[in-house]
Specification:
The protein is α+β, with helices and mostly antiparallel strands and 126 residues long. Helices cover 23% and strands 41% of the residues. The protein contains two helices and six strands; from the N terminus they run E-E-H-E-E-E-E-H. It has helices at 44-55, 106-122, and strands at 6-14, 28-36, 60-67, 71-78, 85-93, 96-104. Strands 1-2-6-5-4-3 form a six-stranded antiparallel beta sheet, with helices on both faces. The longest helix is centred in the last third of the chain and has 17 residues, at 106-122.
Length: 126
């Protein structure tokens, strides 16, 4: 992307308290990505479109969960197996655009929907 562009990302695996200690893996995965552009990306809509193009096609059905001036959160569900569900947030601040995904199995999503939403909603850009 050129001079002034930077990308950072982190992927976290989270186990819920009281979960099955014998089960391997995580109850949910949180991916957080940020990009700093040479110039401000403009509107939140432009940041969202950029991330959709960067991440590529998916089979998610999305519905809005929160809309603010500088961030949008969607609840999503995968139409195809293995039917992941979760929340996806897009944020913009200055020259930076952010994408956060909180992803879980359908079974764990249904049982922990409020926790997963609070994870996505609780991430703020400071």
């Amino acid at each position: 992307m050129g001079k002034g562009y930077r990308y950072y990302g982190v992927l976290l695996g989270i186990r819920f308290a009281g979960g099955d200690p014998g089960r391997k893996g995580y109850d949910c995965v949180v991916g957080m990505d940020s990009e700093t552009f040479p110039h401000p990306p403009g509107t939140l809509g432009r940041v969202e479109l950029h991330w959709r193009n960067t991440l590529g096609a998916d089979t998610f059905d999305r519905e809005p969960a929160l809309r603010e001036e500088d961030r949008k959160i969607y609840r999503f569900g995968d139409r195809e197996a293995p039917h992941y569900q979760g929340y996806e947030a897009f944020m913009v601040r200055g020259r930076c655009g952010y994408c956060v995904r909180v992803l879980s199995s359908k079974q764990l999503f249904d049982a922990n929907r409020d926790i997963l939403y609070r994870l996505a909603e609780g991430i703020k850009i400071i």
